[in-house]
Amino acid sequence: MDKFAWPDPPSLVAFPIARPGYPLIFAFAFITVVFAILELTVMALIGLVFTLFICCFFRDPDRVVPKNSGAVVSPADGKIVVAGKTDDNPLEEGACIKVSIFMTVFNVHVNRIPHEGTVTRIVYQPGCFLPADREKTSTENERNMVFLKTESGKKICVVQVAGLIARRIICKVQAGDNLLRGQRMGMICFGSRLDVYLPLETTLNVNKGDHVKAGTTILGYFT
Predict the structure, then answer these.
(1) Distance (Å, rounded) from C-alpha 214 to C-alpha 183?
(2) Domain limits for position 28
(3) In terms of DSSP H, where are the helices of 121-174?
(4) Other beta carbons within 10 Å of 114
(5) Most buried pick, 84, 88, 158, 185, via CB within 10 A?
C-alpha cells in the first residue's frame, strides 16, 4: 500500500511559482530590464536581486503527503512557537490543542489543509499588524479562520495570521469545499503565522522549537 499521496497534481515545471507572485515578479523584472537598458548597472543588479528574491519567496514546491491514519499534517513551513493545551478555543467551549507556526520571509508561504474534511465556514477578522512571533497576534492581528469538519466528526480550525510586513491573506477555499489532507488552501505574503486548533484528545507529534514543512510533517494524530 502506498504510504504517500499527491493531494494536488504535480507541477509541470521544475520551479513552481504561486500565482499571486506573478505580478510582482513581472514588475521587478521589467524595472530591472529598464535599468539595464539605461546602463544603470548598480540599479540593474539591485533589481535582479529583488526579482530573484520575489521568485524565491513565491516558490510553491509540490509535496507528497503521508497517508497515516488519523495524521494531522503541518499547514505551513516554519518554526513551532506554540504546541500544547489552550483555553483559547474557537471550535467550541472548553480547552483544545493549539499549534502555532511562525514563517519568516525565507520559508515557503503556501498554506495547506492539515486533514481531509469539509469546510464548514470561513471567518475573516480585521486587526493589527504586530510581529507574528508574538503570542497576542493570534487574537489581535488581521486573520482568516478556516473551520473544517472531518468525516469522523473531528473539528479543526486553521487560522492564517498576518504579520508585521504581511498585509495580504489569500484563501482559495470556500465553505462547502471537500478537501484532501495536504491540499493547497492559500498563502500569506511576507512573513506571518499560522495557528491550528485541534481537539483536546489529539496526540501531538511536535514540540516548541521544531521546524516543520507544510503537507509532510505530522503535527499529531487523532485518537
Answers:
(1) 10
(2) 19-57
(3) 137-140
(4) 30
(5) 158
Set of cell numbers at residue 74:
503541518
pLDDT of res. 1: 45
Residue 174 φ/ψ, nearest 5 degrees: -135, 160
* Dist. CA 51–CA 94, nearest whole Å: 47
C-beta of residue 93 within 8 angstroms of C-beta of residue 197? no
Using CA atoms, how far apart are residues 33 and 31, in angstroms rounded to an integer?
5
**Residue in 89, 61, 96 with CA at minimum distance from that of residue 77:** 61
One domain, residues 147 and 199: yes
**Residues annotated as part of the active site:** 192
Q: What is the pTM of this model?
A: 0.89
Name the residue among 13, 21, 56, 61 with its Cα closest to residue 215.
61
Alpha-carbon gap, residue 140 to 148, rounded angstroms? 22
In this structure, the answer to whether residues 208 and 150 fall within a common structural domain is yes
Residues 102 and 208 in one domain: yes
pLDDT digit string, tens, across residues 16-70: 999 988 999 999 999 999 999 999 999 999 999 999 999 999 999 999 999 999 9
Q: Collapse the DSSP code of 26 into the 3-class scheme (helix H, G, I; strand E, B; otherwise coil) and give the result.
A: helix
Instruction: For the chain, report the end-to-end CA distance as a whole number of angstroms.
Output: 22
Whether residue 5 lies inside any domain: the answer is no
Helix 22-37 vs helix 41-57: angle between axes, to the nearest 10 degrees?
Answer: 170
Report the C-alpha gap between 11 and 133 in whole angstroms: 32
